[in-house]
Amino acid sequence: MLSRRRFTLSATALGVTMLGITGCSRPSERTTEDLSADVGLTDSGQPIVTEELTLTFGGAKSALAPEFETMELVKTWQEDSGIEIVWNNEPDEVWGEKKNLLLAGGDLPDALFTSGLSDAEVAKYGANGTLIALEDLIEENAPTLTAILDERPDIKAAITASDGHIYTLPSVEEMGLVEFPRMLFLNTDWLEELGLEMPTTVEEYHDVLLAFKEDIPGGVLPLSFMDAGDISDLIAAIGGQPDNHDHRIVEDGEVVFTANTEGFRDAIAELHSWYTEGLIDQESFSQDYVKFVSKGKSDPETLGSFFFWEIPEVVGPERADHYAVVPIFPGPDGVQRACVANNQEINRGAFAITHTNEYAAATMRWADMLFEPAMSAQANWGPIGVSQELNADGLLEQIPVGEGETEQERRVKVSPGGPKIVTADDFETVVLPEPRAAERQAQIAEFYEPHRANEKYPPVMLSVDELNTVSTIEADITTLVTEKIATWIVKGGIEQEWDGYVSQLESIGLSEVLAAYQAAYDRFAEHT
């Protein structure tokens, strides 16, 4: 390890004004001296330094989280490392407004912890030298992370920019949950009351909703959801077209747009018929979370079925056993299709080092401390003795929460998050999932995973040119598709307007966006 070194921030020739980056926007080479040796940087292990060292971190945190320095785990980090952190983390919304002003100014923190940076911002601030390239620092000062990246080239590819540099460290949690973010839940109490069976086809489901509407008294909402992206599995069952919230999937290595296919058209046309029959909540395209969950907790009970992440959050724990997961319905060809979302388990932006940091080597050693599997588990769910304990098998498991508190409420109070990696293997050898996560894993394994319909778009970091193309066009595509889906389901007219809609997508630039995503996908595939 080099304890005192000069690290180079190589230039990236980018001429993209859209992202605020111009060609030669910084010197071709800029060096910053690392003074870690001056504070007694050790060769390995703990402490990291033998002399006093204070670093300043900025970034995002949950609005419900206390100040990080008051957390037991954060106190442990300081004791173990010998490095004091001054935490300037702000609630997510505040940080979202503040970060660009901070990064554009000269008064930078030494590092960003839970940076909240988009890929475009990483490209911008990496190119202009605000964020330093980390790959050499990782190799020389982060043995735990280096070993993981050697074993998992997909994680390395996900955090590597198109210029070949790594500007941020990852946060990884491989539970297998986020690919199927919305499940369909049905009121089985009402099924029993009406003498009906759990539906196994979309036609049977339609008939159940109709029975709920006609035979259950008191303002029934047969089907409710919060967004058209929630009903991808229903679209696949009716029209045979796998879909997700982005309307972008991967099939046999090809990036495919889903909202311009005949199967998609046919599904939306059929859902208009459902809407005219009164089977779909009229507020499904406009309601927010608060409005949606209030319907699940109303008295008398009103929800016949709904799409959401889990049951208790919508209807409350006292009604949770009134509902059950609905199996995936076969499509027109008899194939069951569980649509896979593009939500990622490998996330960028968990940690970054700014160019004003004079102790980059020590800072990277500090970050590497968090990638040890048991420490990553504690960063994610809280410390041993507070929210987790070792069971008889030597695995970390959740300590039951106290009365009146949920697992999520406790989690944000005791776990700071940040850079961490908890792999699928770690869930077998290091830590057990939270009880609610384990329940959801079982539901996915039984009802969804066997019918996986598509590949998700991987955690690709687009190039600046690709980001420029996507950011210019995709928002207009999303607006058009979202508005048309809602209009066609509520008012109809898709058959008459379809050809014009498909032409409009092309005129906006759909082909260009798909080409950008395909190029990025191909580049990612080459390195995994």
Short key terms for the protein model shown above:
528 residues, alpha+beta, globular, D-Maltodextrin-Binding Protein, domain 2, six-stranded mixed beta sheet, single chain, three-stranded antiparallel beta sheet, 2 domains
Whole-number mean pLDDT: 92
Tell me roughly what share of residues is in helical segments.
40-55%
How many helices does DSSP assign?
20
> Class by helix and strand content?
alpha+beta
State which percent range the strand residues make up.
5-15%
Q: What is the makeup of the main sheet?
A: 6 strands, mixed
Q: Strand order, biggest sheet? A: 4-3-5-12-6-15
CATH topology of the largest domain: D-Maltodextrin-Binding Protein, domain 2
Low-confidence stretches: 1-30
Give the strand tally: 15
Question: What would a concise description of this structure say?
Answer:
This is Sugar ABC transporter substrate-binding protein. This protein is an alpha+beta fold.
